[in-house]
Amino acid sequence: MLGSGGHPPGAMGFMAKSSQNPVTLPAVVDLDALDGVRDTLLAAIERGPVNVTCSAVERISTNALLMLISAAETARRNNFGFAIAAVSPPMQAAIDRLGFGARFAETVKG
Predict the structure, then answer these.
(1) What span, in angstroms and rounded, lies between the C-alpha atoms of 33 and 12?
(2) Could you read off the pLDDT tens digit of each residue along the chain, which spans 110 residues?
(3) Range of the domain at 70
(4) How far apart are CA 65 and CA 97, in angstroms?
């Protein structure tokens, strides 16, 4: 499970400095959904801090998780916050199974 304190060095998250641009992931984030999700994330990052809601995710591909890691890094380079909220149990299971917990630790809120 992802914690909220004592995050390992190199984790990708950080707090936003101002209001968030909301992005909601669909129930299935597979290869067919990646282009649309990527475009939505990029547009949100260009506007400022991003809050990604993941409560509806039932299935998520490895590539989608890697894309979220990349999006968080892009936001950081632009000096914008990037938060992931309401991670669903299936998404958390995918994060844990793939060993991405440290990469998501500081980004996941609540």
Answers:
(1) 23
(2) 333 333 333 334 433 344 679 999 999 999 999 999 999 999 999 999 999 999 999 999 999 999 999 999 999 999 999 999 999 999 999 999 999 999 999 899 86
(3) 21-109
(4) 12
Tokens standing for residue 1: 């499970």
Q: What's the number of domains the chain is made of?
A: 1
The total of other beta-carbon atoms located within 10 Å of residue 43's CB is 12
Among the listed residues 38, 96, 26, the one whose alpha carbon sits nearest the alpha carbon of residue 70: 38
Contact 7, 39 (CB under 8 A): no
12 inside domain: no
Which residues, 6 or more positions from 18, have their beta carbon under 8 angstroms from its beta carbon? 48, 49, 81
